[in-house]
Write a structure and sequence with these properties.
Elements: H1 13-27, H2 41-53, H3 59-71, H4 77-91, E1 97-98, H5 107-110, H6 114-118, H7 123-127, H8 134-141, E2 148-150, E3 160-164, E4 169-173, H9 174-192, H10 199-209, H11 226-235, E5 239-244, H12 250-264, E6 273-277, H13 280-302, H14 311-318, E7 322-323, H15 324-328, E8 349-352, H16 360-369, E9 375-380, H17 393-397, H18 408-418, H19 436-439, E10 441-444, H20 453-462, H21 466-473, E11 480-483, H22 488-496, H23 504-511, H24 520-534, E12 537-541, H25 550-563, E13 578-581, E14 595-600, E15 606-612, E16 615-620, E17 627-629, E18 632-634, H26 635-638, E19 643-650, H27 660-667, E20 670-678, H28 683-688
Parallel strand pairs: 2-3, 5-9, 5-10, 6-7, 6-8, 8-9, 11-20, 12-18, 12-19, 19-20
Antiparallel strand pairs: 1-4, 3-4, 13-14, 13-17, 14-15, 15-16
Helix pairs in contact: 2-3, 2-4, 3-4, 9-16, 10-12, 10-18, 11-12, 11-18, 12-13, 20-21, 20-27, 22-25, 23-24
Length: about 700
């Protein structure tokens, strides 16, 4: 049997997959002879390996199942299948697998192509030989004691852990169960750790920091100054969470919280503050925003009577914001950090921005390294994409943030310390389970940046309202543009000649206009101008591979810019090449997600230049081993950034990655103009109809429902 050919001597992905499936079916003739007693271990492993060969599972998924067989020779075949599915789901960001999902073929969960479900060696065929109910699955899982233990049983090193509840059992890999337990318990302990608050003094300072403003509407949320409330709530425990969309003032609020903590600090030593974020770009923006807000507060306080604060010293003592890897002291080629439970950070207050990007393992490392007496403030947008890695901690913590759920005690505190009376819809109901974390979580609801078309579009996407999305694109003006359906060529055209918005031609004009003199200051000013101009425009996409992925689109855009005369891409490290770091390198001081531009130094030697706030840094290109061209970047990598003009590319055949959160995150990277490029009509509607849900048991640790 030969592979079918087209005129270009290639086949589509679906054709190749169907062909390989037919080959596998021919090789797996033993499927016709499965005994009534069910599949054997060897048959099950062969089936799982076949799925890996077809690309329906990763090779790692089937290899982990085979490893369990080595641990226990008589392991039930269903355990191997469950382990392979669990590994697949962990690779998609889930920390555990609901056993209830295994009672029937998990077609929706896996979202495999049709041939993977219905073929003779597909999902339905295998599930015909597996337990049909929860009791059968639980009995089968418990028949593998060398591979699996109950969460309540002593840990003897088994790879799998069965947790959850009797009605909603959850299957974990051992380390993720440990992360979840530590993170859940530590967050709860911090939320419950009462800190004495001088009510009258705190109220005086809050009234100075937040000048009363007129109400802007008649909705219940308009009655409350949520920023002021967030500062007050953060005073009373070692954990506070401030969530909200772009422009709601999360860092503005955090800056005033720092000033409030400084005003109330009566310790002998100065207040030790640290700022951190998951990426270098997000960290730089956090520092810039905090400094700007503190300077504005200083100017505001200058015209007020009463005690003054030494905000200048506070700004100096904070120092630069750092990536979480840098803060914890990442060690090359290991999961271990310099700072941990045995060697903790020297800090009184830690503010972490873009917390939606902090995955479960990183949150565990952070909490272990933070002294019990330190305050942790998490900032982030609960509606953004979660981290690529497993876990969605901020999403779990903030799942019910819009409802408030505040207890009478919290409501009294809000009135006494912040002067805020919350509408009844934000009170905890008598029948609801009250979470200590909910009492320390405040959602900011008024956007000061997204009142226009972009904000309306983001809100419509967040609500999953397709009709409102179409109405937003129909609004007059140039803020929103939809190219649908379109070709990959449209991406290159937009990059070189954007209409009504910024394009890459803008920064390349700066690149091609270097200073004539060899003056150090003039050169530095030119580099900053190039970097800031590059950050005016960005094209985002959903995937790495394929004609609509980062690799192909970067190459196409580079060629288009070269054909237009903007670039001369000779060699790898040509002048004007935008680069994104893909691996942390503490020795070089660069971290995964940092974006810079290759430009010559005064000696005409090419360097990769990066901008942190107003601080320039450069790295020799010969030492930058892990970097890729960054005309196009994924939506995940763009989190923590903001661009004047953002274009979002939705590719065909990527149903498993297109989601409401991905579209929302892409839209909210745009400040003034947003362009949508759809490969085919209907992709936007399909994406906003698919909210992403990560399976997790984290909420069970503070009284919320898991999953």
């Amino acid at each position: 049997m030969s592979l079918p050919k087209t005129g270009r001597n290639s086949v589509s992905h679906s054709q190749a997959s169907a062909y390989k499936a037919a080959q596998m079916a021919a090789q797996m003739d033993w499927l016709q002879d499965v005994p009534a007693t069910g599949l054997s271990v060897s048959q099950t492993l062969a089936w799982l390996h076949a799925w890996s060969e077809l690309g329906w599972l990763r090779r790692l998924d089937s290899a982990l199942a085979e490893q369990l067989h080595r641990v226990q020779a008589d392991v039930p075949p269903a355990v191997l299948v469950a382990a392979a599915v669990l590994a697949q789901m962990e690779g998609r960001g889930h920390t555990c697998l609901s056993v209830n999902e295994l009672l029937t073929p998990p077609t929706a969960l896996l979202a495999w192509p049709t041939e993977a479900v219905h073929s003779p060696q597909g999902l339905l065929a295998l599930w015909a030989h597996l337990p049909a109910d929860r009791a059968g699955w639980l009995a089968t899982l418990r028949a593998a004691p060398a591979c699996l233990r109950e969460a309540s049983a002593p840990d003897a090193g088994q790879a799998l852990v069965l947790g959850g509840t009797a009605d909603a059992p959850l299957l974990y890999w051992r380390r993720y169960r440990a992360y979840e337990e530590r993170v859940g318990q530590t967050l709860l302990q911090r939320a419950q750790s009462a800190v004495p608050v001088p009510h009258a003094l705190a109220r005086q300072w809050l009234d100075r920091f937040f000048v009363s403003a007129a109400r802007t509407g008649d909705a219940p949320e308009d009655e409350t100054d949520w920023q002021k409330l967030a500062c007050a709530v953060a005073l009373r425990a070692r954990l506070s969470v401030i969530t909200g969309g772009p422009g709601t003032g999360k860092t503005y609020t955090a800056a005033r919280l720092l000033a409030l903590l400084l005003a109330l600090h009566d310790g002998a030593s100065p207040l030790r503050v640290a700022l951190a974020a998951p990426t270098g770009k997000a960290a730089a923006r956090l520092k810039q925003s905090i400094d700007g807000s503190l300077q504005a507060l200083k100017a505001q306080a200058a015209g007020q009577e009463g005690a003054s604060l030494d905000l200048d010293t506070l700004i100096q003592r904070i120092g630069a914001a750092r990536t979480l890897h840098s803060l914890l002291g990442a060690r090359p080629d290991t999961r271990q950090f310099q700072y941990n439970a045995a060697h903790q950070l020297d800090v009184d207050v830690l503010i972490v921005d873009e917390a939606s990007m902090v995955h479960l393992e990183m949150m565990d490392a952070l909490l272990q390294a933070l002294p019990p007496t330190a305050r942790l403030v998490l900032l982030g947008d609960k509606d953004q994409l979660a981290s690529v890695e497993a876990g969605a901690v901020l999403g779990d913590v903030c799942r019910d943030a819009a409802q408030g759920g505040y207890t009478p005690e919290t409501l009294r505190f809000a009135q006494e310390v912040a002067g805020q009376t919350l509408a009844a819809c934000f009170h905890a109901s008598a029948a609801s389970e009250v979470s200590a974390l909910a009492q320390q979580t405040v959602m900011l609801r008024k956007s000061r940046r997204f009142d226009g078309p972009i904000g309306q579009l983001a809100l419509a996407v967040n609500e999953g309202d397709a009709a409102k999305v179409q109405q937003a694109f129909a609004l007059p003006g140039h803020a929103l543009t939809a190219l649908q359906p379109s070709s990959a060529q449209a991406v290159s055209d937009l990059a070189a000649h954007a209409s009504g918005g910024a394009s890459y031609a803008d920064y390349l004009q700066c690149v091609n206009s270097p200073p004539a003199s060899g003056d150090v200051a003039a050169h530095a000013a030119w580099v900053k101008q190039v970097l800031k101009s590059f950050d005016r425009f960005r094209i985002l996409c959903a995937v790495h591979q394929g004609d609509w992925g980062t690799a192909a689109l970067n190459a196409a855009v580079q060629k288009a810019l070269a054909d237009a005369g903007w670039l001369q891409p000779q060699g790898e490290w040509f002048t004007g090449r935008p680069v994104m770091v893909t691996r942390n390198d503490t020795q070089l001081g660069v971290f995964n997600g940092d974006v810079g531009v290759v430009l010559p130094n005064l000696q005409k030697v090419p360097k990769a230049w990066f901008l942190d706030g107003e601080q320039l840094r450069s790295v020799s290109v010969s030492r930058l081993a892990h970097a890729e061209t960054a005309f196009i970047m994924t939506v995940h990598k763009s989190q923590g950034s903001e661009f004047e003009h953002t274009a979002l590319v939705l590719p065909p055949g990527a149903a498993e990655v297109l989601s409401r959160e991905l579209v929302y995150t892409g839209i909210t990277r745009a400040r003034d103009k947003f362009t949508l490029i759809e490969a085919q009509e209907g992709l936007l509607q399909a994406a906003i109809a698919r909210p992403s849900v990560r399976v997790s048991g984290l909420r069970q640790w503070w009284g919320g429902a898991g999953q």
